[in-house]
Amino acid sequence: MSARGAIGWEGQSLLAMLERSEQLLAATGRYQGLEELTLKRSDPIRYEKLFSRLRGGLVSARETALNISASPIVKEIGELCFALYTPEGDSVALSTGIIVHVHTMSDAIKYMIRQRYEENPGIAPGDIFTNNDAMIGDVHNADVQTFVPIFWESELVGWAAGVTHEIDIGAKTPGSVPIGPISRFEDGIDLPARKIGSHDELWRDHVLAGLRGTRTPMYWTLDEKTRLAGAHMIRDAVERVIAQEGVDVYKRFIREVIEDGRRSFQARLREMTVPGRYRAPAFSEVPFAKEAQLPSYARRDTLMHAPLELRITREGMLELDYDGASAWGHHSCNCTPSAMQGAIWVQLTQLLICNDKVNDGAYLALRSNFPPGTWSNHSNPQCSTGIAWSFLIPSFTGFVKSISRALQARGFVEEVLAPYGLTANAFQGGGIDQYGRQSATTNFGLSCVGGGAKMILDGLDYAAAMWNPEGDMGDMEMWEMIEPFLYLSQRVKPNTAGPGRHRGGSGYECLRLAWSTPFYEMQNIGNGYCFIQAGLWGGYPAATGYRHNIRGSDFLDLIQARAPYPQSEPDPGASELAAGIAGRHDFDIEATTLPEVMAHGDLYLSIYRGGAGLGDPLERPYESVMADIAGGFLLERYADSIYGVVPGDPQATERRRGELREHRRAKAVPVREWMKSERERILELDMIEPVQRMYAESMRLSERFARELRAFWELPEEFEFPVATPEVELSKAMLAGNAAEGTREASP
Amino acid sequence: MPAEPAIADGVRREPRVLAIDAGGTMTDTFIVDRDGSFVVGKAQSTPADEAVGFMASATDALAQWQLDPAQAFPRLVAGIYSGTAMLNRLLERKGRRIGLIVTGGMEDMLRLERGIQTYLGYPYSDRLHVATHHHNEPLVPRERVYGVRERIDLFGTPAVPLYEEEARSALQALVAAGVEGVVVCFLFSYRNPVHEQRVRELAREHHPELAIFLSSELYPMRRDLPRLNSTLIEAYAAEPSREQLQRVRAATREAGAGFDLRIMAAHGGSISIDARELGRTLISGPIGGVVGALHLAESLYADRAERNIVCSDIGGTSFDVSLITDGELTIRQTPDIARFVLNLPLVQVDSIGAGTGSFVRINPSSGRPELGPDSAGAAIGVCWPDGGLETPTITDLNLVLGRINPDYFLGGEIRLDAERARAAVAEQIARPLGMVVEEAAAGIIELFDETLRYEAVAQVLGKGYSPVDYTLLCYGGGGPLHVAGYTEGVGYREVLVPAWAAGFSAFGCACGDFAYRGDLTVDMPILPAADAQAKAGVGAFISAGWRTLRERLAAELAKSGFAEDAITYRHFARMQYLGQLNDLEIASAHGELVDGEQVDELIASFEQAYAKLYARSSRSPELGYLVTNVIVTAAVPVEKPALPAESRQASGVAATPKATRPVWWRGGWSETAIFEQSQLCAGSAISGPAIIESPADTFALAPGRRAQLDERRIWHLEEL
User: Fold this and answer.
1) Contacts of residue A489 in chain B, CB cutoff 8 Å?
2) What are the extents of the domains in chain B?
């Protein structure tokens, strides 16, 4: 212990407080072992006033601080969140904003406590800390956190923390979700839980380093001021509350309100869902075999397997299990438990606990298993997490699907949602902008993809993202202030929505013309090869995306001649762009690529995905299908093949649907028989290498999964996919080494 | 300002100012005489011909003074209209049949509605709850939206030429579709309107009768969806309103009125019904109170340099807060109204769903109390059996505590059932909380008051000020009941409650300046390296913008017969650090910036305002500046309602209660003196606990508070 003495309560160190808190939870199942919520019971009004004052402090800190930032994704899209924590790092209350981070920042505080920051570098009044390391507690480097300890006399009574999403993080490739990195050393600015200031001031060396670290230093610096100003405002609010109520009441309150949050979450879960085991695997891709500039170990196509099992217990515990997930890889799409837990938060607050009273209590009613070495918990200090979202978003489609089944079972049909759309494409890049300056951008048009179909309605068209229910495309005139690309169109994209009795929400697309830029590197991110998740109860998945960019185009010649140039691509099967514009077309299903250089006159098509459908498309009313055609949501030629609809003829539609049902019956075979033939395909390895490797990784990382797979398909005991899985072997060696050294990160 | 007993009034009354508030169901008329006395008349609204309801309402008001319109109207010098007809037309989608021409490729703008319009107006819980989000029915269906290939870039340079043939055929098709007008909104037209203007020329050539609305002319500000929405609302909803207003004006003239009927506009001034941008009057009623507060401040604090007022208004559904700082209204440049994002400068009124009709519930999973955000609306609460409600409201809680008189609600027009309220509060609130009924009710009221207190204080802190710099003004039907609660311990400079709090918004509407506002996006950078000469160039550019706006506004006022020399102009610039996104509105002392020094003055004002509003440490002069918009307001003098001026006998006059009744205050029942508002004279001082009743509202004075009535019939509320 330092000379200053312990800063925890009653002379304890923070570490002792944290350990005690965890022991009490483990022993009693209750936060801090609290049996009675005496403050709440004896004076429910005072209790509520305390909460509203603290939360009010957070909300107004956010609203005020927001104005300091200049970054469009913070200022316009609101990618900023503040929270208040106990000394041990458990969240008491949070502001509006990117809720994903409430628990990531909790992880970061706990890391600092476990690493004995109290002794060195010290935690004193006026100190400032920062973090953006996903292995410590974050989603990816672009989410930068600021922490300020709150003291009352000589005791630490809590932490105020804020997080913003940076528009560029100085990674190997531009933007906030960089596709380029294949190791952590390319992820950009790296701030693994560091002390960066004292006496309420940022240290100059840190400030200067930040300015040198990104492509957008102004945004970086103002965002940091934003986080710090907000954290200080929260500290002020807490100090006011303590001055009014006394520190003992405050201490009691922050513990009770978390235990209260745990209990009410469990009550809510019991009220809304039916207990049970729910399963919904999801898939995604990293198609890097084509990327010639990558080293050989990274230059390959990889599939992600996320076999989620969700368990709801009778007591109202929620258990998430990713056992059987495939391995991390040499790309930037890897995830950490902290990121995964963040995703649980955003989904729960949209689906089950949509209110302002949520805090870490809900987290305490969760158990999760993110097995080390898998994509969900790479456990490798050298691994990149630049676009952790690339795993996280597809993998959580299984979560919404499972929760929806549990809600439906209980009868809450209006709450049911089929899987949301993948938030892609990310229109992202950097280079020389229209002002002749170096710059970078991440366009938040991707915050408006299609939502999953509902049980009683179609999905929400182009208006939300799984990580932000308050989607906002932003004004085109605002984006063109930043990006050297003109909008040539922003239109509804047909056939993006997953078909079903109720269709998913539709996606849209933008055609952009590179303008007044000598070069700007643009990447593509999204799925092109595989859909991420099927719909619910017979609903189809949403469409995958594709790439269609044109370099060296004759666009500028076309407009000189007043020729009616194509403005969008409603039907890639009969592409207007391909027919109407000359140039080098990248027109394929490579929807994820490393950056490609574009320049004045080039064209970039950005396709935003739809959501999955619900129910059998043959049950969709004729009028609804006709409305989809009229509204440009469905290409007419798919009315028949998907919906059995003969446009203009309801009677013929009925006959056609009868035929299709008959065709289905004729095609159907008993499951046993189908399984037999599929089993043969497995034994003959009748599948592409990425699929074999994906399952091989799952089997080698999880004995349970391997057993289940072999048993399900009645495969021989010794069955293996004969492919190399170097990441699995590396992980095993590392994990064994860690275990031997005893440095395994504790996880709750 | 009591409605005095009618004593052969018609003879000595001198009605001067009239204000009309035409709501969806009732039209209220507010008429003030030379002494500041007023009458309020009511009549059913008549949407088909608003003039009918208006005259009935005015007749009802004047009858209280034994006057009729033919006698009174010739004596009126000012008449101001505010109403919800335009808003209702928008909400009900009952506007005109409009066609829309946009930049080719952007035909889906109204359907996409930027995603953001799917949750506007929602409380926080529903904003999170994605299953509740939904799109709105577009004002123009997709089949009447045409794209025309063209592009202007952000610098105003044509990037894609206007494809005139497409414009011609779009106009043709829209005319064939029988549209009543066409809106044209191209990207970056505010920077260079040449393409929009060309479309109008084409229309004039081929369809001279067709009404064309250009976004670059009506709302020339950056941001495509807000500009499109604003222009569209002008064509869709505002023009039909103009027809209605002309009928109302005709009716006033028939009755002999000589005044020019004006309408309250969103920026806080009132404008002629002939104004080109009538869409600016979409929201008028809710800001009336703020305009009234400004007028009050000018009268009360004529000798004071800083005039800072927190305007707080409690109605049935919401608590609205707006700030007047240094005598200036706070303007929001791109507000959202009725789920539309707009480029329509609006007096900023922040609203939370906490009114006297807000429902009170105990969450079954957490056992914690929840206030609103939904409310009973016109159904009051469980205490009004005819409303058929089962869930208690804030009004029910006040009734349980004896703070509201069940036999004197709206002057006794509506009888409230206190027992019914008590039973609901006992069962639904007190029991789950494990508290006795009165304690639970009082506790929830405290929580309610605290929420309001926090909301108001947060606004002040967010401005970079402290409550001690501000006077809090309380009005609205529910304001006086809660003002003691939500100002307790805050330390405002003063707390004022007009005796006519319930009618203050209507009063405020009558206080509007005759003032136009013009806004123009210029996006003029001032680079860090700019020298005096470069700055002088910037000054010339800004001055040119102001000149354009002055000419435009002078033309508007000329329609009402005002010559240029009668107009007072004020000049503003909206500025931000170059690269930042939030601009601030800065007043300029000069209407013409002739040299670099005057530009430096503007910069200094901006720096000062920025440092005040945000952390001083976030000032970033090294980035340079951007002047985003230039603004001019043009006002001509008009008569405003006089404030009452009673003679005061003495200060601290003890008043005589009309009755007593038990009221629950913090800690228990206490026999409380009840006063009748209209019986109290200037100088009266009353200490809490006390209740001051009037037919329109109830002023609750908690123990420890004292209120004194001044000559203007404004209560000054103090802490003892």
Assistant:
1) 104-106
2) 9-89+241-261, 93-240, 358-447, 513-636, 653-719
Residue from A470, A604, A628 to probe the interface with B (highest B Cβ count within 10 Å): A470
Q: Do A480 and B134 touch (CB under 8 A)?
A: no
Position B10 scores a pLDDT of 57
The encoded tokens of residue A333 equal 């799409």
User: What is the torsion angle, in degrees rounded to the nearest 10, for the CA atoms of residue B245, residue B250, residue B253 and residue B255?
Assistant: -100
DSSP codes, A677-740: HHHHHHHTT-S-HHHHHHHHHHHHH-HHHHHHHHHHTT--TT-------HHHHHHHHHHHHHHH
- Taking the complete model, does pTM exceed 0.90, yes or no? yes
**Strands B471-475 and B309-314, sheet pairing:** parallel
Pairing state of beta strands B684-687 and B705-709?
Answer: antiparallel
- A620-644 pLDDT, tens digit per residue, is 999 999 999 999 999 999 999 999 9
Hey, is the C-beta of A451 within 8 angstroms of any chain B C-beta? yes
The CA distances from residue A187 to A174, A183, A386, A526, in Å, are: 10, 7, 6, 19
Q: Tell me whether strands B690-693 and B668-676 are parallel, antiparallel or unpaired.
A: parallel
DSSP β-ladder status, B513-526 and B269-272: parallel
Residues A346-372 have pLDDT tens digits of 899 899 988 778 888 988 999 999 999
- Enter the ipTM: 0.94
- A173 Rama class: left (phi>0) / alpha (psi -120 to 50) / beta: beta
Find which of A476, A506, A555 to mutate to test the B interface (most B CBs within 10 Å of its CB): A476
Residue A451 near residue A421 (C-beta atoms within 8 A): yes
- The structure tokens listed for A75 are 């200022």
Which of B127, B151, B435 minimises the CB distance to A469? B127
The CATH classification number of B93-240 equals 3.40.50
Q: Inspect the interface and report whether the beta carbons of A52 and B135 lie closer than 8 Å.
A: no
CATH architecture of B513-636: 2-Layer Sandwich (3.30)
- Among A67, A478, A632, the residue with its CB nearest the CB of B614 is A67
Report helix, strand or coil for A51: helix
Residues of A in contact with B112 (CB under 8 A): 448, 462, 473, 490, 492, 508
CA A380 – CA A328 distance, rounded (Å): 9
- Domain at B9-89+241-261: CATH architecture: 2-Layer Sandwich (3.30)
Cα A355 to Cα B127: distance, rounded to the nearest angstrom: 9
**Beta carbons within 8 Å of B241's beta carbon, 6+ residues apart:** B85, B86, B89, B278, B281
Written as six digits, the tokens of A696 are 């091989």
d(CA B54, CA B70): 14
> Measured between CB atoms, does B124 come within 8 Å of chain A?
yes
Give me the residues of A, 614-633, that contact B with CB < 8 A: 631-632
| Interchain contact A448–B (C-beta under 8 A) | yes
Interface test with B, best of A354, A443, A502 (most B CBs within 10 A): A354
* A722 prior amide bond cis, ω within 30: no
- Residue pLDDT, tens place only, A216-248: 888 898 899 889 999 999 999 999 999 999 999
Q: What's the gap in Å between the CA of B580 and the closest CA on chain A? A: 4
Beta bridge partners of B473: B311, B496
* Cβ-nearest to A354 among B128, B155, B447: B128
| Domain B9-89+241-261 and domain B513-636 have a common topology | no
Q: In 3D, which of A283, A232, A241, A9 has the Cα closest to residue A128?
A: A232
**What does the alpha-carbon distance between residue A190 and residue A132 come to, in Å, rounded to a whole number?**
7
Q: Judge whether A609 and A542 are in contact, CB under 8 Å.
A: yes
Contacts of A222 in chain B (CB under 8 A): 580, 618, 620
Tokens of A369: 């298993």
Question: Tokens in use for B322?
Answer: 């707006």
